[in-house]
Each structure stands twice: as structure tokens, then as C-alpha cells.
Specification:
Blueprint lengths: L4 E9 L3 H19 L3 E6 L4 H7 L5 H9 L2 E6 L15 H8 L4 E7 L17 E7 L13 E2 L4 E2 L6 H20 L5 E6 L5 H14 L6 E6 H10 L6 E4 L1 H14 L7 E5 L4 E5 L16 H18 L2 H19 L14 H12 L1
Parallel strand pairs: 1-2, 1-3, 3-12, 5-10, 8-9, 8-10
Antiparallel strand pairs: 4-5, 4-11, 6-7, 11-12
Bound molecules: adenosine-5'-triphosphate (ATP).
Length: about 350
């Protein structure tokens, strides 16, 4: 029988995490009630910096496992600059979730919202609607598993790309472009690399071309990462899906958040073959925590991405319908001026933004 009842492991985390998560849960509940045909069990677990201070561990082993066993993981934000592991790094159990669940594809949509003035100053900026797909388990970050060599006179890192991950990453990119094309998207994937200089990136591009053969309805494009950075500022409205190695994706996706004006608008999905983790691209923002002014839009849109992904994984179109309803309600809230977040000089608080979205879900 078809599974329409999904278990979601919820980790609100630190700083503004619990505030924006409460809003996202209320929005999910409203969309589910409106559309019907599926159920969500939201199970909340404690993890992160505050948990570490209290329990001397960043997450209980059983609560970590609950994420791997769930149908999806919904995460607020983890870490606080003032709380560190003994090695000096910030508390980050979510990074282990990425590894444990082989979440190799990080999807960061970059989209403008009506009435939100971005920094580009072009009327074309209203048309920005692209997705950066960042490989998230290897590339230059593979160096962290022992590839860093640092002495007093020299430092080096090792970049690793594996065929298995690159193939699945490119497939994700082409499938996403196809799904977006069905909704009126451009139907293009751009391979972002530095294949003119580094053999590892020529390898990446070769695999991109091989996988493209299975998607003849999708147009292939290519960009060297330096030219891509230029075009992200010059004509980002010209792009659809961009796929790239880990460190390139790290940088280009933040550039994407910058050109639409705020981290508070940037959702994120980290996908593997069996599990997905959904969280806003921003951190725990301790500077504004507890003030009721955090923008929950990225968190709400991450929850919508979760529904969309569940729809595809389990063939439950009602989940996709609920996701579309949430996205439309968010857009409507910005269009009619009900949502004016604090980062844009507005005064719509965290809870009020949630209420505006729920009212527009109907
Ligand atoms: P991390 O390294 O954990 O990703 P960070 O140090 O890059 O985090 P953030 O926590 O993302 O920093 O915050 C960066 C800035 O953006 C801060 O000034 C913060 O207040 C602001 N900010 C982040 N998220 C939001 C949000 N949802 N609403 C409003 N402002 C936000």
C-alpha cells in the first residue's frame, strides 16, 4: 500500500532556530489540513550548542538515529559562536547527519520576492529564479578527512571527486531541471567547473556530459566558476539549475543569497538517495534571537521543499500540492505587502509573517 504518513525528525536547534521552527510547523499543519491526503508526525529532538552546554554532548545517539530513521529531517539552525568543542570548532551535529545519511546534493534556490529590493538595481532582478546544486560530501571538503597538510613552510589540501557521487549529483540536477520545466522553467542545467585548468574538473564535466545523454529534453550549458561569479551579478536571471563541486557551491550559493538581498529568504535542501535534510541556509543568528524579528521565510520555504521532495520520493502528489500552496502563500504575502521582514527595514515580526502565510493558505 502507498505510504502517505510521514515521520519527520525536527531539530529546532539554537538561537532563532526554535522561533522560526514553530512558525514553519504551524504553516505545515495549515497546508496539510487544507490539502489533505497525507499525514505528518513531527517528532522534536534537542540538539546543538544549548544541548551541549547542558548534557556535555551535542546530541543523544538515539535522537541522532531518529533522524536517519525518519522520512525526512527538518532543522532550524545549530551552533552558537560562544560554545565550542574542545578543538575550538562550533557545535555542529548536523554536519554528521550529512555524512551519516550521505546527503551529497545541497540544493539552494535563489529567487527574488515581490517588493524586496535586492542590491542589483536592475528591473530584470525580479526574474531571478535559479537553483544552485552544491555537492556536499567531497570535493575540497574531503580534505577534512585527513587530506590537509600544514607545516610552517607549506600548506596543502586534497580535492576528491568520485564517479559514484558525481553521477548521482548530475542526475539530481537534470531531474530537477525537468521538474522545473514541467512548471514552466527553462529546462537547462549549467555545469560550473574549472575544467580548463584542473583535470579533476575535466573529469566532473565528462561525467556531466555522460549523464546528460539520459535527459535529451534538458539543455546543457557550461561555465567556468570565475565567469559564473561574474554572471551571478551581471545576469543571474539567465540561469536555471547550476551544478558544481562543494567549495564552488559554498561560495556561489552565498553569492546567490546576496543578490536576492537576505539570508532570511534562502532555503536549503540536502538530499541523498534515501533521506533529505531541510534547513534555512542561514545560521542561528544569535544577535537577533529572542527578539521576535527573525525572518522565518527561509525556514518555511525549506519545509515546502521537504513536502515537494516527499511527493517525489513516495509518489504522493498531495504533498507537492501543499508545497505549491505554501510557496504561493509566501509570494502573495510579499506581493500584497503583508510581509515586510526586518532585514529589509520592515516591521513584520516572526510570528506575524507566519500568520500572514497561514491566512493566505486559507
Ligand atoms: P553560520 O556560520 O552558522 O551559517 P553565520 O555566522 O554565517 O552563521 P548567520 O547566523 O546566518 O551567520 O547570520 C548572519 C547575519 O544575518 C546576522 O546578522 C543575522 O542576524 C542575519 N540573519 C540570519 N538569518 C536571519 C533571519 N532568518 N532573519 C533575519 N536576519 C537573519
Amino acid at each position: 500500500m502507498q505510504n502517505t504518513s510521514f515521520t519527520i525528525a525536527v531539530y529546532p536547534g539554537d538561537g532563532i532556530g526554535p522561533e522560526i521552527m514553530a512558525v514553519a510547523e504551524a504553516v505545515l499543519s495549515a497546508a496539510r489540513a487544507k490539502v489533505g491526503g497525507f499525514d505528518l508526525s513531527l517528532n522534536t529532538y534537542s540538539a546543538g550548542a544549548a544541548h551541549y552546554l547542558k548534557h556535555k554532548e551535542d546530541i543523544a545517539a538515539a535522537d541522532f538515529q531518529a533522524g536517519s530513521d525518519a522520512d525526512a529531517i527538518l532543522l532550524g539552525a545549530m551552533g552558537l559562536p560562544s560554545v565550542r568543542y574542545p578543538d575550538g570548532t562550533e557545535i555542529s551535529p548536523h554536519l554528521r547527519m550529512r555524512t551519516a545519511n550521505e546527503l551529497y546534493a545541497g540544493l539552494r534556490p535563489v529567487k527574488t520576492f515581490p517588493n524586496m529590493p535586492g542590491p542589483l538595481g536592475s528591473p530584470k532582478a525580479a526574474e531571478i529564479d535559479l537553483v544552485v546544486i552544491r555537492e556536499s560530501t567531497e570535493g575540497l571538503f574531503a580534505s577534512l578527512n585527513g587530506g590537509s597538510r600544514v607545516s610552517d613552510t607549506e600548506a596543502s589540501e586534497v580535492l576528491t571527486l568520485t564517479r559514484s557521487v558525481c553521477e548521482r549529483l548530475c542526475d539530481q540536477a537534470f531531474r530537477l531541471a525537468r521538474a522545473r520545466k514541467a512548471k514552466g522553467g527553462k529546462g537547462e542545467v549549467t555545469c560550473v567547473d574549472k575544467a580548463n585548468v584542473f583535470p579533476a574538473f575535466a573529469f566532473f564535466r565528462r561525467i556531466f556530459d555522460e549523464r546528460a545523454e539520459a535527459f535529451p529534453d534538458i539543455t546543457r550549458r557550461y561555465a567556468y566558476v570565475d565567469a559564473m561569479a561574474l554572471d551571478m551579478v551581471r545576469k543571474p536571471w539567465d540561469f536555471d539549475v547550476l551544478v558544481m563541486e562543494n567549495i564552488f557551491g559554498d561560495i556561489i550559493s552565498d553569492l546567490g543569497a546576496g543578490i536576492v538581498g537576505s539570508m532570511g529568504l534562502a532555503p536549503c535542501a540536502e538530499l541523498g538517495d534515501r533521506n533529505g535534510l531541510f534547513q534555512p541556509a542561514h545560521g542561528s543568528a544569535p544577535d537577533i534571537a529572542g527578539q521576535g524579528i527573525a525572518n522565518p521565510t527561509a525556514m518555511i520555504l525549506s519545509a515546502a521543499m521537504m513536502l515537494d521532495w516527499l511527493a517525489g520520493q513516495h509518489d504522493v502528489p498531495q504533498c507537492a500540492e501543499a508545497a505549491a500552496l505554501i510557496e504561493a502563500a509566501v509570494t502573495q504575502g510579499f506581493t500584497d505587502g503583508a510581509i515586510r521582514p526586518s532585514e529589509f527595514g520592515g516591521n513584520t515580526g516572526t510570528v506575524e509573517i507566519g500568520e500572514a502565510v497561514i491566512a493566505r493558505i486559507g
